[in-house]
Every structure is written in structure tokens, then in C-alpha cells.
Specification:
157 residues, alpha+beta, five-stranded antiparallel sheet
């Protein structure tokens, strides 16, 4: 985004520190606008909030998925990290869901719900239809951004 290109490293750190300290977003952005001569900082603050997990949260998710995969080798998960090593997207599919997909992959529905958790990551569900025309759950994901790149990542995995 053009506004991000105008923010220097110091300003980005200041925005994130203010957000962590609990300064309201409108005041945080206004401080940035005054200090930097006017670029819009709202997108930067929103992006950083989405990527900020608590200490060990992403690792806890990974450990849980590893344990599930050890119990059942057909359990599938994939984690997408950004250039700083922060969790961007995560996809997981239970073994029964994988087997069901093999049977009923003709019709798929992909749905995201908006801001369902404290990390502001959207929950995405992948649902199919069986031969009785009943919905069947096939998999799910948490996505940081509802954009083509995130959706492409999900379907490629």
C-alpha cells in the first residue's frame, strides 16, 4: 500500500509500541500523522495487530498439530509464516474430513467469517455436499487477510 512505503522503520516501531501500550487506534494514527507529515497509518496498525500473536501462541498451535499428526498420520496441517516468522495463515484437515473429501468433492463451499477471534484472523470453513445433499465439513483455516493470495495458499495446500 502506498501509505506503508512512506513510513520509516522508527515510525512503524512507534505505532506498534503505542498499540501494545493500549493507546487507542485513532490517537495512535493521529500521532503518526502529525509526526510524519500526514500519511495514513491505519492500514499499518491494522496489519500489525492481525499478525501479533501472544508469546508462544503460534508455537502452541504447531505443537498441538504435531501431536495430532503423531496420533494419526493422516492429520494434515500447514502453517504460512511471513518474512518475520509470524503466523499469517494456518490450515488443518482432520483425517475423517480427508476421507470424506475423496468421496464427495464435487461441490465445495468456502466461507470466511469476519474477525472471529482475538487475533482478528478470519475463520474459513470448507464444506462439501454428500449424496444425501447434506453439508459435510471438510477442513478449516485461519487467515490473516481475506485476499486472493491467502485463498490461493489455502487451496494449493
Amino acid at each position: 500500500m502506498p501509505a506503508h512505503r512512506q513510513l520509516n522503520v522508527h515510525m512503524k516501531r512507534q505505532l506498534e509500541a503505542n498499540d501494545i501500550a493500549g493507546i487507542k487506534p485513532c490517537k495512535n494514527v493521529r500521532i503518526c500523522e502529525v509526526q510524519s507529515g500526514g500519511p495514513d497509518c491505519r492500514n499499518f496498525v491494522d496489519q500489525r495487530r492481525r499478525l501479533r500473536l501472544g508469546d508462544g501462541d503460534a508455537e502452541a498451535i504447531r505443537q498441538l498439530f504435531c501431536r495430532l499428526q503423531l496420533k494419526d498420520g493422516n492429520f494434515f496441517y500447514s502453517m504460512d509464516l511471513d518474512e518475520d516468522g509470524r503466523l499469517r495463515n494456518v490450515l488443518w484437515i482432520h483425517p475423517r474430513c480427508r476421507a470424506t473429501y475423496e468421496e464427495f468433492h464435487d461441490v465445495l463451499s468456502f466461507d470466511t467469517t469476519y474477525l472471529v477471534n482475538r487475533y482478528k484472523m478470519s475463520f474459513a470453513s470448507i464444506v462439501g455436499v454428500n449424496h444425501h445433499r447434506h453439508s459435510i465439513f471438510l477442513g478449516c483455516a485461519l487467515v490473516t487477510h481475506e485476499d486472493a493470495e491467502s485463498f490461493r495458499w489455502i487451496f494449493q495446500n
